[in-house]
Every structure is written in C-alpha cells, then in structure tokens.
Write a structure and sequence with these properties.
Blueprint: H1 3-8, E1 17-18, H2 29-45, H3 53-71, E2 78-81, H4 84-92, E3 102-106, H5 111-124, E4 127-131, H6 143-157, E5 162-166, H7 180-189, E6 195-199, H8 210-215, E7 218-222, E8 234-238, H9 240-245, H10 285-299, H11 303-321, E9 327-329, E10 339-344, H12 350-359, E11 362-363, E12 365-368, E13 371-376, H13 383-402
Parallel strand pairs: 1-11, 3-4, 3-5, 5-6, 6-7
Antiparallel strand pairs: 2-8, 7-8, 9-10, 10-13, 12-13
Helix pairs in contact: 2-10, 3-10, 11-13
Length: 403
C-alpha cells in the first residue's frame, strides 16, 4: 500500500492537517472494521460460552506473537495492558525496594509516571533524584555527542543505593532519543544493579526498538499513538529479572495460574510469565484493530525505512520553522525523530497558537512542562501539510505583530 493510499484510509486525516501523532494517531478504516468484525464474531459465538474461548485465546496469542516479533523478544515476556502508564506502574509497584533506596528519574518523564514514582517513594520511604536530560539540545547531526552526554549524566547522578532508573526511550517533549542499550549495560555494571524502566509511548512504531526493548527491565508502550491503533490497548515487555522478582500489586483472575483452589494456601498463585501483570476482563476486539494497523504499517516498509522517512519530514519542518522570525526551536539542528518542539517569542500563552491554528484545521499541541509547542510528523504526513503549518504559523506571528 502506498503512503497516499494508506492516508486515504484514515477518515481523521481527510479534513485537517494533523501533527498530533505523539498524542494519538488516527485509526485506519480497515482497523476500525477489524474491531467491528471481532465484536460481531464474539456476539455470534456468544460473549460467555464455551464456543467463544478458543477465539479469544487465538486473538490474544496472535497479538502477543506480533508484538513479540516487533520487540524481538519471547511472547511470554509480553503483558497486555490498557496504556503506557499501567504498563509502567503495575510491574513497578511490585519491585523489591528497601527503606532509603534511590529512584533516578529524568526531567523529561510524563507526569503520570513521575506521580507514580513520587507516591511509591512516599509509601516506601525512598528518595528521588532527577537526571537533567532536558538541557540536551543537539539534533540528529550530533546524536553520538548526545549519547555520550547522557552516559556521563548517568555516571554523575547514579548513587550507590539507586534501585531504579526511569527514562523514556524517546523524550516526549524534546524529541531526543536515549541510548537505552548502552544505559542498560552501564546499570548492569553498577554496584546496586538498578532496574531500568523505559516509557516507550513515543518510540513504539516510530523508531527501531528491538535492542532497547530487549535490554530494559520494563518497556511499556501503547498502540494508539505512532502505530495508528485503537486507544485502550498497549503492552509491556518485561525482563526475566522482573518476572522473577516483581510481585503483582493489582491482582485479578488473569494474574492467576488457576482460579480453582484459590482458598488453599498457595505460595505461587501467579503466572510466571507476563500474564502475572494482567488483571481481568479487557476489550478483546481492540486486539484485531491493533494487529490490523501494525500489519498495514509493515506493508509500508521496514521500520528503518519508515523511520528514515519520518526523520526526512521532521528535518524539512525544522528547517522551515528555523527560517521564521520569532520561532525558537528546542533543538539546535534537525531532530533525530518525528517530534519538533518550539516556542514563539512575544506570545502570552502557547494555547493562543493552538487555538488559532485549530481554526485553520491545523493541529499541534501545547506541552505543559516546559511550556512548548509540539508538532509531530509521521509517514502519513506530506509536504503540503508541512507548508500549510508553516504558513499558519507565519500568519499568526504576523497578526500578533500588527496588534
């Protein structure tokens, strides 16, 4: 399927210029139809009959196998979740922390994960340190320098009692990519051997993830952003160490090896694989929708080919924005990903920009901390959309100067 046809199959992209893939991607018609078809199949079989269980089992196995192939890990290391936050938090809360252990969080993490870590620290009497990666501003042309700086920061901020490092694979605000594989190696050499929790909300189906996914202890992602999948379905890839050492803290029937005999004193009631972090009834038809989107993406080319296209488009957008008076770009050269963050000098609030552009059917978003504007390009972005966004921003700035 050509990129044009791929885009034509997304109703949400037919009447707007869309740059919010990092928030939520549009759903292809084929994926919506796959979800509807799955609903219909379940209802025909009977939603709670002996006839439906083989179908549900087949859907779960097919989805986990596809995700495991993308992540290059064994399917037993995959747990299905509703979103990135639950994928991070459910295994995190069961890790064996001791009084006074240190958590090292980057200053570019999503508020949901930061809040969970702060609450965990409060309950377990842990300390928190902040890894300052937001100050890194090199673009794609100096990627290796960025990696070296990150590793130096890790060395500087790791404490002898650091038990967990929380770092996104792709920073949701700056667009920088973190060297997860190299960081993992450094942590394994550290005296306390900290766990590595990776928020992969912005990386799944955006950048190549196989090496990072295999080396993180908790690698949580969602299907509703760059993968063009439905909201309400994600997954987490778990290391063997986490599967052995983390006990589920939010428990349901899916976590159990068997429902019968639950009143018997069983010291090992939970699954030994990723299912130990799955809880209870979930929306099965979403599985078909996500698989449909992932297969369509696969038909668009290998992940490295798609990533190269995304970087080419973001470089074009970055270059055009760099020529506009009063626009301040976060990175000093074209970004290493599809995320382009910037600000506009002299405006009262970035929300003014989003509201103005929205009236022209141009959609970007405001980041809250720090207050930046963010535009995301994906393989369905085209040059016409980029030009429309540039014109819209120029017109906004011109109108502001005339007031």
């Amino acid at each position: 399927m050509s990129p044009i046809l791929f885009k034509d199959n997304m109703p949400a992209l037919q009447n707007k210029d869309y740059f919010n893939y990092g928030g939520q991607g549009p759903l292809p018609t084929q994926s919506l139809n796959a979800i509807t078809s799955s609903w219909e199949t379940i209802q025909k079989l009977g939603p709670f009959t002996n006839n439906v269980w083989p179908y549900i089992t087949k859907e779960i196995i097919a989805t986990k196998n596809l995700l495991a192939e993308i992540c290059a890990i064994h399917p037993k290391r995959i747990a299905l979740t509703e979103n990135v936050t639950s994928g991070c938090v459910l295994p995190l809360l069961g890790l064996p922390f001791s009084d006074g252990d240190n958590l090292l969080l980057s200053d570019c993490e999503h508020p949901g994960i930061v809040a969970a870590c702060k609450e965990l620290a409060r309950k377990k009497n842990l300390t928190i340190a902040i890894l300052p990666v937001s100050k890194l501003c090199n673009g794609n042309d100096k990627k290796d320098e960025t990696y070296n700086e990150v590793l130096k920061l890790i060395d500087e901020y790791l404490q002898k009692n650091t038990k967990l490092v929380v770092l996104s694979h792709l920073l949701w605000n700056t667009g920088q990519i973190m060297p997860i594989k190299l960081i993992s190696k450094k942590l394994k050499e550290h005296l306390s051997k900290p766990y590595l929790l990776v928020d992969a909300a912005q990386s799944f189906s955006h950048i190549p993830i196989k090496g990072a996914c295999n080396h993180a202890d908790i690698y949580a992602f969602t299907g509703h952003k760059w993968a063009y999948g439905p909201e309400g379905l994600g997954a987490v890839a778990l290391s063997t160490r986490v599967l052995e050492e983390s006990s589920p803290t939010l428990v349901g029937w899916k976590s159990l090896k068997a429902e019968e005999g639950i009143y018997v004193n069983n010291k090992t009631p939970f699954h030994s694989d990723g299912r130990r972090f799955e809880i209870a009834t979930s929306c099965v038809p979403l599985l078909a929708g996500l698989r449909s989107s992932l297969i369509m993406l696969k038909d668009e080319g290998h992940e490295t080919e798609r990533f190269c296209k995304i970087k080419d488009l973001s470089a074009i957008l970055w270059g055009k924005l760099n020529q506009i008076k009063n626009i301040e770009l976060v990175l000093n050269s074209p970004p290493p990903s599809g995320i382009v963050s910037f600000n506009i000098r002299g405006i009262n609030s970035p929300e003014e920009v989003v509201n103005y552009l929205g009236q022209e059917n141009l959609w970007i978003r405001v980041l809250e901390d720090p207050k930046w504007l963010r535009a995301c390009v994906n393989i369905t972005t085209d040059l016409n959309e980029i030009n429309n966004l540039v014109i819209g921003l120029k017109n906004f700035i011109s109108n502001q100067e005339s007031i």
